[in-house]
From TrEMBL:
Protein family (similarity comment): Belongs to the LysR transcriptional regulatory family.
Record-given protein name: LysR substrate-binding domain-containing protein
Entry keyword annotation includes Transmembrane helix: no
Keyword Transcription: yes
UniProt keyword annotations, A-Z: DNA-binding, Transcription, Transcription regulation
A Pfam family assignment: HTH_1
Transmembrane regions: none
Domain HTH lysR-type: 1-58
Family annotation (InterPro entries): LysR_HTH_N, LysR_subst-bd, WH-like_DNA-bd_sf, WH_DNA-bd_sf
């Protein structure tokens, strides 16, 4: 029994009249009779008892009602799943992000997608550095990434989410901690604690540029794996660090003072959502549209 047979059977079971059932099915009465006869031959028994005055369901016909309904419901679910997939409402999408600088945006996007596309599976992967997740978008291991980058490859499209101010973190008892704004030159003799650099590391590129603008090369530069470790070491007085306003607001650092930098080139860094422009996954558009509504 296929779906068309099941629908015809159920309509006739409801109407118990070939004429009315044929009218509802928008077909002639003889084709409906032939369809029911073919169905009866396939199941090996009569489904309806026919007389000149009435049509009645047999016991076998009554038994077939629920399976016929289940078949139609399964077909409807399958069609809906296909339609939802094509419109980006069902599927799986993966997003990478790098730590504290994008925690708030990732959480906001996940919450909104749960409302807008509840059947969408949203997989989130955290990596230590933005460059790592950017490479995964390029090699198609991830669909999206959120991060701070100086440059983006031509294969990617991007959506600007927010701006992150670049600040200096010092111990609260540092001689300069009483100021709100300082110049990089005033820290020329201080040891520095920074994250690992890289070709596309926005924060470390900014650190190099600001140091050069101030006319010095850091005399000591300790590299640590993440922003939490940076704040821990700054908080015990082991050095200063270039950091972000998002880190200042999300990483506990009671013994750290965050200062603004007197340098006109120290503009905010853009936090962006990126994806491959050649992706054919329709789910991506749902995520992009959601992000546009949320952050634009």
């Amino acid at each position: 029994m296929d779906v068309a047979d099941a629908k015809a059977f159920l309509v006739l079971a409801e109407e118990l009249h070939f004429g009315r059932a044929a009218q509802r099915l928008q077909m002639g009465q003889p084709p409906l009779s032939r369809l029911i006869q073919k169905l009866e031959r396939s199941v090996g028994t009569d489904l309806f008892k026919r007389t000149s005055r009435q049509v009645e369901l047999t016991v076998a016909g009554q038994t077939l009602i629920e399976p016929a309904r289940e078949l139609i419901a399964a077909s409807d679910r399958a069609l809906e799943s296909v339609k939802s997939t094509l419109t980006g409402q069902i599927g799986t999408v993966s997003l990478g992000f790098a730590g504290a600088s994008s925690n708030a945006e990732v959480a906001a996007l996940a919450r909104q997608l749960a409302i807008k596309a509840p059947r969408l599976r949203f997989e989130v992967q955290s990596s230590q550095f933005a460059d790592d997740s950017l490479k995964k978008v390029l090699d198609k291991s991830l669909d999206f990434s959120i991060g701070l980058w100086e440059f983006l490859p031509s294969e990617l499209d991007a959506l600007h989410l927010s701006d992150d101010d670049v600040l200096i973190a010092v111990h609260k008892n540092h001689p300069l901690a009483k100021h709100e704004h300082i110049s990089m030159r005033e820290l020329a003799q201080d040891p520095w604690i920074n994250l690992p650099g890289g070709y596309n590391s926005a924060l470390q590129n900014r650190f190099r540029n600001l140091s050069l603008n101030a006319g010095f090369v850091p005399r000591r530069n300790q590299t640590v794996p993440d922003s939490w470790t940076v704040m821990l070491l700054v908080g015990v007085g082991m050095g200063a660090s270039l950091t972000l306003s998002s880190v200042a607001s999300s990483v506990p650092a009671d013994d750290v003072k965050f200062l603004k930098i007197n340098d006109p080139t120290n503009t905010p860094l853009p936090l962006r959502l990126v994806w491959r422009r050649d992706s054919l996954n329709p789910v991506l558009q749902t995520v992009i549209d959601t992000a546009v509504d949320l952050f634009s």
